[in-house]
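[job 4471] stage=fold_predict status=RUNNING
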Amino acid sequence: MDSIKLFESKKVRSQWVIETEIWYFSVVDVIEILTNSSIPKRYWSDLKKKLTKEGSQLYEKIVQLKFESNDGKKYATDCLETKEILRLVQSIPSPKAEPFKQWLAKVGYERMQEIADPSQGIDRARENWQKLGRSEKWIQQRMTGQETRNKLTDYWKDSGVSKGDEFAFLTNIIHQEWTGLTVNKHKAMH
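[job 4471] inference complete, writing structure tokens
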């Protein structure tokens, strides 16, 4: 499933890969936006070399996906998943990247607080759902549902289910009974 995300009215080509359930983003699109480079492919080529010399593992995370170009044809394009795109943003010296870097620092700090005191994570989830306009009833149902799912997966673990694909299989069965759709088909609808 291809998609175009907009940032400051500029296109960032992206693709959802159903098999891995991961969003990938065009690296040159992100670089063009953050650097205003007239030749973002060259900027990316130079940055890859620099990062490799510095010992970055980012190069190994690149995935090639075909995206439509300005000429209407599809070409293999370097892409990274969200986590790696955020890492890339940290490597680009640009005033446009600074807000992302500040946001990443804030999120990292909050995550460290949640590790030290997990109740903060629960409070932050409730607060975020409220910001998204969710009702108290919805929030309570969501939290109760998560607790129920955790009990179920704990039961599965105690019964010998140990692999991620086994959990996915069992989850898919329950989801299909509930919605009439597989998890992937349901996600593709949203």
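[job 4471] summary: The mean pLDDT is 85.
[job 4471] exit 0
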